[in-house]
Amino acid sequence: MKKLILIVALLSSSIGFQAAYGATVIAHSLSTRQVARSERSFSRNNEILVVCRSNLNYPLDRTYSSIDALDRDAESQLNITGSYFHVYSFSINGDGSVTQKRNKKFKAN
To answer: I want to staple 64 with a disulfide (CB 3.0 to 4.6 A). Which of 48, 49, 70, 94 is the partner?
Structure first.
């Protein structure tokens, strides 16, 4: 029973999407997940793909102390109603921190 509950929890979270995508992906809404699925410039080697929506020009910081801190910040964005999609690639450092490698922004329809 515990395994079933864990599987359901994983499938309903961004972590479940990560497992299905085959890489570490942070995307907290249906629209951001759709953009993540279509992203082709992502290398997947020791990187985290983050897609969020926001009205800000640069909603995420350049560095975070952990993947969890990055995930919390991405989740706090206007992921359903933001005017722009932001696609980020973060590298994972040896100490567990993450550093932004690249980003792009485009208008949400």
So the answer is: 70
Q: Kindly report the pTM of this predicted structure.
A: 0.78
- Residue range 3-44, pLDDT digits in tens: 433 333 333 455 444 544 456 899 999 999 999 988 877 766
Q: Which domain holds residue 95?
A: 2-107
Please report how the helices 14-21 and 2-11 are oriented relative to each other, as an axis angle in degrees rounded to 10: 80
Per the structure, the count of domains in the chain is 1
Question: What separation in angstroms does the CA of 5 have from each of 47, 72, 100?
Answer: 28, 23, 34
Q: What is the pLDDT of residues 34-62, one digit of tens each?
A: 999 888 777 667 789 999 999 999 999 99
The 3-state secondary structure of the chain, one letter per residue: CHHHHHHHHHHCCHHHHHHHHCCEEEECCHHHHHHHHHCCCCCCCCEEEEEEEECCCCCCCCEECCHHHHHHHHHCCCCCCCCEEEEEEEEECCCCCEEEEEEEEEECC
